[in-house]
Q: What sequence folds into this?
C-alpha cells in the first residue's frame, strides 16, 4: 500500500516510536502518579519528560501548561468550553476543521456566543486586515487553523497574533497540520492556546494530543476526577496540568509521542517541510500535464505544507479514491475532509476533492505511481 493520507494520521511511524511503545508497554505500563512503586514512578517520568520536550519544541512557558488530550479535537473542545463565556464574540474562518467549526457553531446556536466566520481568498489565505475589521469590543477569542487541512495553505498567524495581543484578545491556533512540520514559537507568535494532535506530523500514536494553555488564558476544568496526588481535595486541584487532566492518562501514547518528537527534532523541521512540499510540487507538475485535473491552493512552497487537493470532472472524488485504493493500492482521502465551509468557498461542495498528503517516509516514486494511476484512470 502506498499511504498518502498523512494529514489524517501519519503512517508509518518511525522505528524508534514502535520501539518506545513496545518497551514502555512491556516494562513501565503502570498507572502514573497513583502509587509510589517503581513502575508507577517510571510511568510518571514519561508524563514529566514529554512536556519538557514540548516546552522546548514550542517554546511554551512553563512545561506544566501542556495538557495531554486524546487528539486535536479533544484539545480544541477543552479550550472552547473552558475559555468562552456568555456573550463573548469569536472570530474564526471558513478554513476550519469541524473540530473548530462545530463546537463554535453549537455555542452560537445556543445563544452563548456570537461568531464571525471570515472567508479565505481564492488561494486559501486569511487576510489579517479582515480580522482587524471583524474585532468588536466583545471579541474574546480569535480561533484559526495554522494550515488548511484541505488546501495546505499556511496562515499569517504572526500578524494575526500581534493584532490579538494589541487588542487584548485571546489567540487560539489549531496546529493539527503544522505541528512537526513548521516551527511554532508560542511566545513569539502571541499564541495563548495551541491545540495539536500527537498522531499526525509529531509521529506519535493515535490517542495523543495536547493543549498548551498560556498564562493569559483562564480555563475552566471540564473533566474532573482522580489525579493521583492531592486526593483529599473535594474539588479538582487547581495545579496544572492536573486541573485539566482528570483520569488515567494515555501514558503509553505519551511515551510514543516523546519518541516521535525526538525523531522530528533529529531530522529537522525544515528538512521534513522541504521533503513534503517537494513531493506535492512534483505531483502538481505531473498534474499540469493532465489539464482535466483541477488543483486547488497556491503553489509557493514557503506558504504551504505538503497537502494537495484536486478534482477531476470525469469522476466524483469518492469514486476516484475507491479506484485508487482497490485497483492501485494507493491510500488518499477523498471527500470534504471534515472542512465543509472551505469546500463551499472553492466550489467543491458536496463532492469534495481528492486530498494527497505524503509524510516523511514518502518518496518521489510514490508520487509517480499516483500520477501514473491517475493518467491511466483518466485515459
Ligand atoms: C486542521 C485540523 N484540525 C483539527 C483536527 C482534529 O484532529 P484529531 O483528528 O486529532 O481530533 C484535524 C484532523 O484532521 C485537522 O486536520
A:
Amino acid at each position: 500500500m502506498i499511504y498518502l493520507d498523512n494529514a489524517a494520521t501519519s503512517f508509518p511511524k518511525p522505528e524508534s516510536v514502535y520501539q518506545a511503545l513496545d518497551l514502555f508497554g512491556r516494562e513501565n505500563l503502570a498507572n502514573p502518579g497513583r502509587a509510589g512503586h517503581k513502575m508507577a514512578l517510571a510511568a510518571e517520568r514519561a508524563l514529566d519528560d514529554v512536556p519538557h520536550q514540548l516546552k522546548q519544541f514550542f517554546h511554551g512557558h512553563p512545561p506544566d501548561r501542556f495538557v495531554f488530550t486524546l487528539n486535536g479535537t479533544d484539545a480544541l473542545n477543552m479550550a472552547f468550553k473552558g475559555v468562552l463565556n456568555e456573550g463573548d464574540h469569536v472570530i474564526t474562518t471558513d478554513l476550519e476543521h469541524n473540530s473548530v467549526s462545530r463546537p463554535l457553531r453549537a455555542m452560537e446556536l445556543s445563544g452563548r456566543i456570537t461568531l464571525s466566520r471570515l472567508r479565505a481568498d481564492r488561494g486559501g489565505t486569511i487576510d489579517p486586515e479582515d480580522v482587524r475589521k471583524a474585532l468588536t469590543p466583545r471579541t474574546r477569542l480569535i480561533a484559526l487553523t495554522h494550515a488548511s487541512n484541505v488546501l495546505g495553505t499556511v496562515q499569517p498567524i504572526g500578524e494575526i497574533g500581534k493584532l490579538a495581543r494589541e487588542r487584548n484578545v485571546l489567540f487560539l491556533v489549531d496546529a493539527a497540520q503544522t505541528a512537526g512540520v513548521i516551527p511554532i514559537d508560542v511566545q513569539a507568535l502571541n499564541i495563548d492556546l495551541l491545540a495539536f494532535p500527537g498522531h499526525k506530523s509529531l509521529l506519535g500514536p493515535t490517542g495523543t494530543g495536547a493543549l498548551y494553555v498560556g498564562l493569559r488564558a483562564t480555563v475552566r476544568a471540564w473533566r474532573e476526577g482522580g489525579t493521583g496526588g492531592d486526593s483529599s481535595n473535594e474539588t479538582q486541584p487547581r495545579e496544572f496540568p492536573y486541573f485539566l487532566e482528570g483520569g488515567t492518562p494515555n501514558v503509553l501514547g505519551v511515551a510514543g509521542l516523546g519518541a516521535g518528537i525526538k525523531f522530528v527534532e533529529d531530522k529537522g523541521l525544515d528538512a521534513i517541510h522541504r521533503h513534503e512540499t517537494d513531493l506535492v510540487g512534483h505531483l502538481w507538475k505531473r498534474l499540469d500535464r493532465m489539464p482535466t485535473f483541477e488543483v486547488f491552493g497556491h503553489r509557493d512552497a514557503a506558504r504551504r505544507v505538503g497537502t494537495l487537493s484536486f478534482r477531476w470532472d470525469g469522476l466524483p472524488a469518492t469514486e476516484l479514491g475507491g479506484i485508487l485504493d482497490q485497483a492501485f493500492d494507493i491510500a488518499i482521502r477523498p471527500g470534504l475532509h471534515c472542512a465543509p465551509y472551505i469546500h463551499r468557498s472553492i466550489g467543491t461542495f458536496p463532492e469534495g476533492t481528492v486530498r494527497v498528503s505524503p509524510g516523511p517516509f514518502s518518496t518521489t516514486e510514490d508520487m509517480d505511481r499516483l500520477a501514473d494511476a491517475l493518467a491511466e484512470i483518466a485515459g
Q: What stands out?
A: The radius of gyration is 21 Å. The chain has a mean pLDDT of 96.
